[in-house]
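FAQ: What does the model actually see?

It sees only this:
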Amino acid sequence: MLGEYGPLIIFSTIIISGIVISSPLGKSMKFPLTNTRRMLLGLVVVETGTLLTSMWTEVIHREIAATGGTNFCAADGLVQCGSVIGDPKYSEFFGMSWGMIGMISFSILLYLAISLFFGPRDKMANLWLSMAFLLSLPGLIGVAWLVIVELFLVDGAPHICPYCTAVHVGMVATVVILYVLRNEKEEGKWDIAIN
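And it is asked to produce this:
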């Protein structure tokens, strides 16, 4: 059907679409939204794609744990996820898989992004934005650690996990978009007029 990389193509397309929507390139797309709401829409799309990718990595992790292998991604070579997601030492953090951590993290971030998109005038909007930004920052540490694991620590390293990389791109994009939105809010450029 879609093969081992079909879901990756779908999830990556969603993440990249969100990045484009929220970027300056998104201004030329003529969305009937203000600049702030367009960026918030892009944030929602990025986080949706990243949440879906995290869910898929959890599926891969559970299948490897249950059967010792998976048909959902390549298990050998430089670009593969079997040895990274299935590594008994590095695939979990305090007993929780990285996919589960991603699912929980991006569920919370997506909730806050949707709250901001539909309630940018709400008296809680400033708190939601600050919370989202602060909650996203530890994700950068997680990304750095997992890149080190992929490149140097897993058995037979280096290995590049494409699903993990998609999550990393989504995490970095989330932090950048939230940073820009937070700066706009602090500078009084929070443009939320209804079009």
